[in-house]
Design brief:
Layout: E1 6-12, E2 22-29, E3 35-36, E4 39-48, E5 56-61, E6 64-68, E7 72-73, H1 75-80, H2 86-89, E8 96-104, E9 111-117, E10 120-131, H3 136-147, H4 151-160, H5 162-165, H6 170-177, E11 182-185, H7 186-192, H8 195-209, H9 213-224, E12 227-230, E13 237-246, E14 250-256, E15 262-267, E16 274-277, E17 282-285, H10 291-303, H11 305-310, E18 317-322, H12 328-344, E19 353-357, H13 365-369, E20 374-378, H14 380-389, E21 392-396, H15 406-423, H16 430-435, E22 441-445, H17 456-470, E23 475-479, H18 489-506, E24 514-517, H19 523-530, E25 535-539, H20 545-550, E26 555-558, E27 574-576, E28 582-584, E29 598-600, H21 602-615
Parallel strand pairs: 11-17, 18-19, 18-21, 19-20, 22-23, 22-25, 23-24, 25-26, 26-27
Antiparallel strand pairs: 1-3, 1-10, 2-4, 4-8, 5-6, 5-9, 7-8, 9-10, 12-13, 13-14, 14-15, 15-16, 16-17, 28-29
């Protein structure tokens, strides 16, 4: 028995007076029978009574006291518990009812959790420990056998531990799987090998990072039944016939080298975003997957270890191409051009199933390219179950976009435009006919989620009203959130947020300005409307996707100073606001560059629009 692993017992201790301040509550984590080592995550939600001003969560662990204030929006709670409508949820006073905090706990003392209001403490939960019989040593053996690719032994050990594996906390997984593991870039990993191995390691990474990797991998999966890559540490090939789709929309490919060494390629945006070599205790980071996401992904493997073992069938074959991402930028810049590459290579027509994560299907590749592939849309674990049922594995299609991939992206754009024009029901869209009477027709993109133009409402009103003085037939199309083909609750929520901004602008516009909106529309509709636009105003990143990239309409693009001149976007005819006119919001200084909002004088944008219209 190993006392460093403890099993939790969570008891509900709420008394009658508890209901004086609380209507509903839930402790999501920790859970009963959860196993921990070291840090412990506390998360959940609480709905207070209207008469109560403020609620805090108090955690007592021996002499240590921790205070948590609700600071997490819980749309799910208001929707399912209080039955709040989608239209009213964003402005509801109890939306920020969730809490989350990770603390180091002293295992020699039990834990008591209280709600505190008005200086009074109300006991809520008590957590006690007991020794956990599945010790670290057994878990380490299970992991070592699994990464040695000895399926029979791994299966036996996992069955013996099946009652406990799903309860192991992330800290235990990290302690065993990632103990002393180094994470760094590819070049550093290559240099860390001895001189004899470096050439093979470099050959491997050149292969998986190459824009051709996606096509080559699918080609070998179809023709030979396995995904083949050069052996990182030898002269043969490493093969993959197992994949695991885990929450976070990460697909993990398990490879076995010619010498029997196991390693994993993780796919999220591209076909290779990171590579984990467990025997060598090294994670090579390529792009888009931070170490925390990788640790979380492997934690999910042990949450679903029975699925992992079921994925090891000798009958496995290539059954699905994952062609998905939840962000339109990555979907259209990294995934879609890769799909076009596969079509050009004559491989897409041989793919039987195209898989999309929920919220990550912004177009139908089967429809656009006219293939007979079946398309499935579901959560990652459900797609994983489908793969197991069909004795198969999947591969995520994606090539990281840079300036060398512009032609590949444009080739896809032609396909999207052609399909959209051929399938659109022009006769049924009365708004489309109405906007053809406008001149100039202005496309104005709003941004709510991140990196927003702080003055966008006031600026839009002033720019449009000023233009209307000169152009009495002025029309505006508002753009914002782009919905996937299968709309989720999150898409509806974000669409509503963008519409609220558009409504604030519309109510202040001069009478006579024709107002239309494609906020929340599908890409198919947005490209049809974009082609009629005379000039656009919008965020020069993803905000210009449909109007500037797909349809090449002229306009003025704005963004923060960190990203305004980024070369990671295609934006034909877009005049970018000069950095000297952009002021990044001071309170965002410590945020990631793609989260920084900014200020711009509306007259700078207006002058740019006037110049473009003057050349028309």
């Amino acid at each position: 028995m190993n006392t460093s692993l403890l099993e939790l017992s969570v008891s509900d201790c709420a008394l009658a007076n508890f209901k004086k301040i609380i209507t509903h509550s839930s402790l999501d984590f920790p859970r009963p029978k959860q196993v921990l080592s070291g840090r412990l995550a506390f998360s959940g939600w609480v709905l207070k009574k209207e008469s109560v001003d403020e609620i805090s969560i108090l955690i007592r662990n021996g002499p240590a006291v921790f205070t948590i204030k609700p600071d997490v929006k819980r749309y799910d709670v208001l929707s399912k518990v209080l039955r709040i409508s989608e239209a009213a949820i964003e402005s509801h006073g109890l939306l920020v009812c969730g809490f989350s905090k990770e603390i180091v706990v002293d295992h020699s003392h039990d834990i008591s959790i209280y709600f505190m209001s008005g200086g009074v403490e109300y006991l809520w939960k008590e957590i006690k420990y007991k020794d956990f019989e599945f010790d670290v040593e057994r878990f380490e053996k299970l992991w070592s056998v699994f990464v040695s690719d000895d399926v029979s032994l791994a299966d036996a050990r996992a069955k013996a531990a099946s009652d406990y594996l799903e309860e192991i906390s992330a800290s235990v997984v990290n302690e065993v799987v990632f103990n002393n593991v180094v994470s760094a870039g590819v070049e550093q990993f290559i240099q860390s090998n001895d001189a004899e191995s470096q050439s093979g390691t470099k050959r491997f990474f050149d292969y998986v990072i190459s824009p051709d990797f996606c096509v080559r991998a699918v080609q070998t999966a179809i023709s030979q039944g396995s995904i083949l890559v050069p052996d990182p540490f030898g002269y043969g090939f490493s093969a993959c016939r197992q994949s695991y789709s885990v929450p976070g929309n990460i697909n993990i490919l398990k490879f076995t080298s010619s010498s029997g060494e196991v390693f994993y390629i993780l796919q999220h945006v591209s076909s290779a975003d990171a590579v984990f070599f467990p025997s060598r205790k090294y994670v090579a980071l390529i792009k888009h997957l931070p170490m925390q996401s990788i640790k979380s992904a492997f934690g999910r493997l042990f949450d679903n270890f029975k699925r992992v073992l079921a994925s090891s069938s000798s009958k496995n074959k290539f059954v699905g191409l994952i062609a998905s991402h939840g962000r339109p930028y990555h979907f259209y810049y990294d995934v879609a051009p890769a799909i076009n590459d596969l079509n050009t290579a004559g491989l897409l027509s041989q793919v039987e199933n195209i898989l999309y994560y929920q919220g990550g299907d912004f177009c139908s590749f089967a429809d656009i390219y006219g293939t007979a592939a079946r398309e499935l849309v579901d959560g990652p674990v459900s797609l994983w179950d489908w793969q197991i049922k069909n004795f198969g594995y999947s591969f995520h299609a994606g090539v990281l976009f840079d300036s060398s991939r512009v032609v590949n992206a444009v080739n896809f754009d032609h396909e999207l435009l052609s399909y959209s024009r051929s399938q659109y029901d022009y006769d049924a869209d009365k708004d489309l006919r109405a906007i053809t009477e406008c001149y100039p027709l202005i496309w104005f993109g709003v941004t709510v989620q991140k990196r927003a133009w702080v003055e966008q409402v006031d600026a839009a009103v002033k720019i449009l009203n000023k233009l209307h003085e000169k152009y009495p037939r002025l029309g505006v199309i508002f753009d914002g959130w782009t919905s996937p083909l299968n709309v989720t609750e999150g898409d509806l929520r974000e669409t509503k947020n963008d519409i609220l901004v558009c409504d604030k602008i519309t109510e202040q516009l001069s009478k006579g300005i024709k107002v239309h909106s494609v906020v929340g529309a599908l890409s198919y509709k947005k490209v049809i409307y974009s082609r009629l636009v005379d000039v656009h105003i919008g965020n020069s990143a993803t905000g210009g996707l449909h109007v500037a990239r797909f349809c090449g309409r002229p306009g003025v693009g704005h963004l923060n100073t960190k990203l305004i001149d980024s070369d990671e976007h295609i934006r034909y005819g877009t005049h970018l606001v000069e950095k000297k006119f952009i002021v990044d919001r001071p309170e965002d200084v410590d945020l990631r560059s793609d989260f920084i909002s900014y200020s711009i004088d509306w007259r700078v944008v207006y002058d740019g629009i006037v110049r473009i219209l003057g050349r028309a």
